[in-house]
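hey team, just a heads up i'm posting the complex here instead of the shared drive bc the drive is being weird again. everything in one block, sequence lines first with there labels, then the predicted structure for the whole assembly after. its two chains so it's a bit long, scroll down
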Amino acid sequence: VAENADIFAGLKILELGAGAAGPVATRYFADRGATVVRIESAKRPDFLRMIHLTADDPHGLDGSPMFILMNPNKQSVAVNMSMPEGVAVVKRLVGWADVVSENFSPKAMAKWGLDYAALSSDHPDLIMLSSCLFGQTGPQRMYPGFGGQGAALAGFNHLTGWPDRGAVGPYGTITDSLSPRYVALLIATALYHRKRTGQGQYIDVSQIETAVYSLSEMIVRYSARGEVIERRGNASECAAPHAVYPCRGDDRWIAVAVFDDGAWRALCDEMGAADLAADRRFATAAGRNRHGDEIDDRIAAWTRTFDAHELMRRLQAAGVEAGAVQSFDDLLGDPQLAERNHFETLPHDLLGDMLFERDAIRFGDGPPRLHSAGPNLGQHTRFILGDVLGLSADEIEALVERDVLV
Amino acid sequence: MLAGIRILDLTQEAGFLAGKILGDLGADVVKVEPPGGDLAGRRGPYLGDVEDPERSLLWLALNTSKRGVTLQLASDAGHEIFRKLAKRADVVLETAAPGALSELGIDYDMLRGDNPGLIQCALTPFGRTGPYAAYRAHDLVTVAMGGNSALTGDPDRPPVRCSMPTAYFHAGPEAALGIAMALFARENSGRGRFVDVSMHEAQLATLMTGPGQFARAPHPRRRGGSKLGRTREIWQAKDGDISFGLRGGQARIPNLVATVECMAEDDMAPRWLLDYDWSSYNHNSLEDAEIERLEAAFGAFFATKTRRELFEQALERRIMLAPCNDAREILEQPQLRHRELFTTIEYPEFGATIEHPAFFAKSNACRIGIRRRAPRIGEHNAEVYREFGLGTDELAELQRDGAI
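-- predicted structure starts here --
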């Protein structure tokens, strides 16, 4: 048995919320043996279940590839939270759980009487974590933005693009990929703390704050020297050349980063450009930065005759830092990701085989264990209420009849 | 939360954040540098623009909550001392190229022989094994290989990266998480683990399941500049960029309606927009011309307002619109100020005070946040080496030999 899969065996996490920022975090635990139960409702579905939903979709809320791919190994319980009986079901599940992780807007949990003060009164070692864009306190806490706005507020949009053009922002919604790492870390650390002390706790995460904290260097540079870091394309302060060059084919590119003079000479050797290597203007990174355009033109003229991956292998073998700009298609065939078992095919009952991803952590005894696709809405309602909470078939039926379990 | 956990942090820049996070969670993190300081990690710009490794702002920003010692790992004496440190440590955190530490005689199996509970975390560009394990990569190459660059930037220019290292920002907390998991597991087993974290693999998280979606429906994707998918995501206000999604879905429609109301009050909503039926709005099914018409109307309104005016409206009316802040604006942001995100650290030897982000979360039970400023070179040699069991004579000898 892989030791890996067992790290969180027996751990019980109750998840409330939607989108990526909360759900990505609990996957680290679901993939390592924890039972993660999501509370959902068809009355107010997770927007990822509807992100590409069209009126004629035969699978409705259960057919969203993004939702399914983001939530494997989890169980779904459908509960209508607008009914007191629904809130009562969730309260019983809190009693079962070690951890409650939620990413609603700040007032939602309190509105249901599910805030930490209420939940911890008869569950003192409960670990509860709330993650929202701006945190649980403060004048702008109710601000309703998504990850796109998080990236803007935290500085990532301003920092991405070309100096002579407007901001573009990094692809995706970066606070939705950054903050879940911190959320998972906080849950894991709180579990460790509880194991050693018996103490639970409440943790308030602002997704924007995790991003600004990551950007500490930017904050410190402004505070210390009034420097506003601007977007500068692919240029670097400490490496030159440091750019993305064209390769053979449609929209094919290679990233090249030269951090020392030895790598510069190696690159010149590969290019057969003895004149560049001998040119004293280019002997240092500062000089190469000053004459960036001249050098970049020469390199681009050379790289465009090569296949990006072939050139990457050749340059890396010569000690030059280089990497193909990879498309989704490239990632699916990436031999390094294959070595790490990054992808895993699992069947989904409606959509067939789907390709799931793993995180970046390995313990040397096999990859994290993926066993089931993201759940259909309410797929595990009866199992969790019956087998876990011990409700009788009649009790469950009564709740169903009153429309509580939708 | 990590009180009493001793971490030896051997990292270069890519791993600074991981150690800082663990220190801010209460671990005793000891930064181990070569004598003279880790020059590669102590790059400019410098405080007061004086080129001095102790004034490196990168260093000062990302090595808070750590103590600092110097140690020449490449010497026999240094190697022996490291073994002594590791005997009493809980975690070794490193970013060396795969195999590089073993060449110095620092091998996990050996260290674990001395200390079965020891955890070692290697944060490397591509992981410890596999065809790319020996490849070099800092941020640019990691982001390119990880699939993000291809879709970032203007369509008529090369792919581009964020000008701050987002690969390290994802890998840092990922490595810290791997360590936290290993500590948790150690409580049951008593045994440490080797934690192998790949920056490249962590970078794929930014794609939000894109590769798996592509595998089902292989439509080639191109960089969209300021667009996200079909619709504009970044717009020009009167004084700079804002982020606003002209996208549909139940969760978003009320904010589109509120924006139109806001425009109407300024007489900037054309008749057709006032009559627009948002109830079934779906940006995926619109004609191109319809998207253009909507974008022109919203864009014209945004261009007449400052970012501050627009954000005030957004807060009041719950509109998903935000300014694309720069460093200055973030430091002045009222919500972040209210939550006291920034703390001032004094650097008396330079006559300077600097504001730092103080924490990444708040807990009602445990303090999360900066414990101490980044160490000067070898600042804690005497203190740390004594705690780890080295005598005064031994220390003096090591200093003479240049080992510390």
